[in-house]
Amino acid sequence: MFGTYHHKRVLTAITGAFLVLVGIGCELLGDDPTPGIGDVEEIAYQDHIQPIFDNRCAACHSGDRVEAGLRLDSWPSLIVGSDFGEALIPYSPEQSLMIKLLTRTNADPHPSGKRELTLDEVQLLKRWIEEGARGPEGKVPYSDSIELIYVANEGEPARTT
Ligand code: HEC
After folding, report:
1. Contact present, 71 and 61 (Cβ < 8 Å)
2. In angstroms, rounded to a whole number, what is the distance separating the alpha carbons of residues 60 and 101?
3. 46 C-alpha to center of ligand 1: Å?
4. Residue 111 C-alpha to ligand 1 middle, in angstroms?
5. Is 84 in the pocket of ligand 1 (CB under 6 A)?
6. Ranges under pLDDT 70 in the chain
7. Is any atom of ligand 1 closer than 6 Å to the C-beta of 60?
8. How confident is the model at residue 156, as a pLDDT?
9. pTM of the model
10. Could you tell me the residue ranges of all domains in the chain?
11. Cβ atoms within 10 Å of 90's Cβ, excluding its own
């Protein structure tokens, strides 16, 4: 009887250790894909885009911690941009700082580690910008500006023509 009891304790300990290891593994690998964004036909900001920001970016770009002055907890604040300028350019994912950072290959992607985006998430953000980066009511950002503005773009080489 004592033997059986002992045996059970050992089994419990092994199971426990296994669960802890699996837990650590998940924590390190960690890319919990944002739910509900596979096979999206028509992109709706609140259903498909904001959840990506909430899942991947909120820790550093909302609440008390707002890195670079860029707040990603709503469409209007995202469109306001960072302390340095616009985070994206509607219809142009290639020129959008956000996409450049998320896909950069010459350094760690942004953000890295546990919060790194899945390919699906990056693709969806790109497509959303390509279709105009529309907000919850379908509005294209900056579209009611009445003056033309010159946007200096850090990512573009200077042109001399
Ligand atoms: C672990 C913290 C962290 C997370 C998570 C994070 N960021 Fe950042 N982000 C920073 C820091 C720090 C900076 C400023 C320094 C830099 O550019 O790396 C920054 C800067 C930026 C900038 C550049 C702003 C500018 O004008 O220079 C963009 C765009 C940006 N983040 C987008 C995102 C997006 C989109 C996500 C989620 C997909 C995200 N970040 C997640 C920490 C984070």
Report:
1. yes
2. 15
3. 20
4. 7
5. yes
6. 1-6, 18-31, 146-161
7. yes
8. 64
9. 0.79
10. 1-30, 36-154
11. 19
